[in-house]
Amino acid sequence: MDIARDATLHQRILNELESQIVSGAWPPGHRLPFEVDLAKQYGCSRMTVNKVMTQLAKAGLIERRKKSGSFVTQPQAQSAVLEIHDIKTEVASLKLAYSYALLATTEREADIEDRRRLDLEKPGPVLEVRCMHLAAGDPFCLEERLINLEVVPDARHADFSNVAPGPWLLERAPWTAAQHQIQAVGADRETAKLLKLKPETACLVIERRTWNTFGPVTHVRFTYPGTRHRVVADFQPSSSQPR
Amino acid sequence: MDIARDATLHQRILNELESQIVSGAWPPGHRLPFEVDLAKQYGCSRMTVNKVMTQLAKAGLIERRKKSGSFVTQPQAQSAVLEIHDIKTEVASLKLAYSYALLATTEREADIEDRRRLDLEKPGPVLEVRCMHLAAGDPFCLEERLINLEVVPDARHADFSNVAPGPWLLERAPWTAAQHQIQAVGADRETAKLLKLKPETACLVIERRTWNTFGPVTHVRFTYPGTRHRVVADFQPSSSQPR
DNA sequence: AAGTGGTCTAGACCACATG
DNA sequence: ATGTGGTCTAGACCACTTG
């Protein structure tokens, strides 16, 4: 906890509150101390605390309610930018029946390729999960995931035959940073077979790495039949709207 | 200018400064009034002005330099999220020679499809521009663009044979909101021919709509040979880093 | 009615970069 | 050295919502 030694008072308070939240010490729904109390605790004025709380609220980590206090929001408010797709929700919004199938899980020491995918500096144990998401019984999306067992050791004993690793992780290992890569590729033979496509059909591949304060959490590659999926990102540069 | 009647003082000042910037009245490089002067002008304390300026800086609209003042940043600070690709820069970063070729321009009344692409409510004049971006003489990306002539009438007489419409627009019609859509498609015959690919090769299609305060500005569709291009988006939910 | 966050003030001191 | 933004204070009033 020696991060941010000579930062501003803001930053120090922000970091401390933030780590309470992302570490899970303050779970979703938890009420934060009131501004006046935090001000006393840190020996500063309320304005300073207010600034921090306002930032946390803007970042979506907490929700503020007058007369009641400030509360940690549900798992992750990644709504800001490039949404983290919950595939189940996505399929449901298309009014199709969702189902899920586990293909395989493998535990191993990270090889070179694994370390590249996970942004891992040292070798370490990883869990690979391959699974399929289906809509109305048809292949919707292939998921190939790598989980860093050093950061999420519980994943070793998780049962992914009924719960997809995405939702499972979201509850247990909140992330603080994410990187997306999107590209188009022609389906290779195995992918084509799984998705029931002709080989070389254009597919949209979305890769996402996520980190929390303890390091890389997971790398996941979603392969969608190309024309059946779009990524949408809205963007407004300034901070006008009240939201 | 009757927006935001009963907003907070913050909001009012923010809106006014922001519109000076996005309207172009304060062009890139322009020095904003000092905090103390703005405080006098609005009859408020410096803290209030400071809060606004801090927000503008976070949003990337201005840059603040001690002892010098605050300055409007270059055209658009879309660096935040899903970067607006300047293809010339992109090619340059690959250390390849960039070149550009205009294919065709067409002026017409917006048809149904044009209105859908531009998010246009009423019919109106539009300009279609098709052009190619090349890297080391090879096709790099096909650009198909629609410009709303009601918002950017000057485009009618612009010469796009040497300057790509992207950079041209960026200087003349700053945008305030953008939406991206990304998908993978198999190249149709014409696209394949232009990009020198086999038909049905996987391509990454990035579509972008942009708006400013006067309405839809432009819709553009970039088609890249799939494996040769990736979209990358970093995302950090909270506001920790000093950047 | 009371307690919370939202906003604002009129000062202050400091670090920093140099019209 | 000077003037700028960065930060912080110790108050204050208001609006909202309801332990």
Automatic annotation (TrEMBL), chains A, B:
Transmembrane segments: none annotated. One of its GO terms (biological process) is L-histidine metabolic process. The keyword Transcription regulation applies. SUPFAM superfamilies: Chorismate lyase-like (SSF64288), Winged helix' DNA-binding domain (SSF46785). Signal peptide: none annotated. One of its GO terms (molecular function) is DNA binding. NCBIfam families: his_ut_repres (TIGR02018). This is Histidine utilization repressor. It comes from Oryzicola mucosus. The lineage of its organism: Bacteria, Pseudomonadati, Pseudomonadota, Alphaproteobacteria, Hyphomicrobiales.
